[in-house]
Amino acid sequence: MPSYVKFDVSEDLEDQTFEAVETARATGELRIGTNEVTKAVERRNAELVVIAEDVEPPEIVMHLPAICEEKDIPFTFVGKKDDLGRACGIDVYAASVAISEAGDAEDMIEEITDKVKTLKTTE
Q1: The Ribosomal protein eL8/eL30/eS12/Gadd45 domain covers which part of the protein (predicted)?
Q2: Is 70 exceeded by the pLDDT of residue 8?
């Protein structure tokens, strides 16, 4: 597990995260790519940040968990950047994505956030 990954995510939570990203893509708004995600977090325009675990070099996304915690923005992890890119509706990988407007994914994001809080307190 890369050093920036703060907790283990279950397969169910990962699937739910992909579903939330896909729903937000269709009915809300995404910020795709680490530069866009960083700007969204710094401006507090992110409802949920999703970070891939297989990013090379890890320095590309290593700062994201820390700034998310600083700005009190929930974040979670998924295993593969290819799958994250696909969920975003792009043909290339995505190291990270921020859901900036939830659209119909609002309830899913709330549920994901609650699960992540539980994971963080048990780790």
Answers
A1: 17-108
A2: yes
